[in-house]
Amino acid sequence: MKRVFFVVLLFVAFLVFGRIGGPSAIHGYITSIDIQKEITTATISVKDIPAAEIATKVKPGMSVKIIHSIETAQFRLPIGRILSVKDGIVTVAIDQSLLDKEFENPYTQEKIKVRTLFEVGAEVSISVEST
Prior knowledge:
Elements: H1 2-17, E1 26-35, E2 40-46, H2 51-57, E3 63-70, E4 73-86, E5 89-94, H3 96-99, E6 102-104, E7 111-113, E8 123-127
Antiparallel strand pairs: 1-2, 1-8, 2-5, 3-4, 3-8, 4-5, 6-7
């Protein structure tokens, strides 16, 4: 019994202090979209991180996913990667092939293109994960 208690206590300690599961995603919103012939970029406003600290937490190459909720289901759909971080401004290179992907509404089976969600004000997450 003592051994089980110790194992459970150890697991809880790792959860609280060890951050099992890796770093959490950083959240923000799309503030502008720039569509050019060769590249589409978006600017992201990062939530809950002071502008001076953004460059220490957000790095070029990190994955950006648009967050979309339908009733109780939440989707995190990849849209691109961080291109640059300068003076608190986060610029994302948008991957057109990712915008053309579709996902299914689990309640109506309707197909939804990621492109229809890509707009100013859309919530995004930034993480080290691959797209």
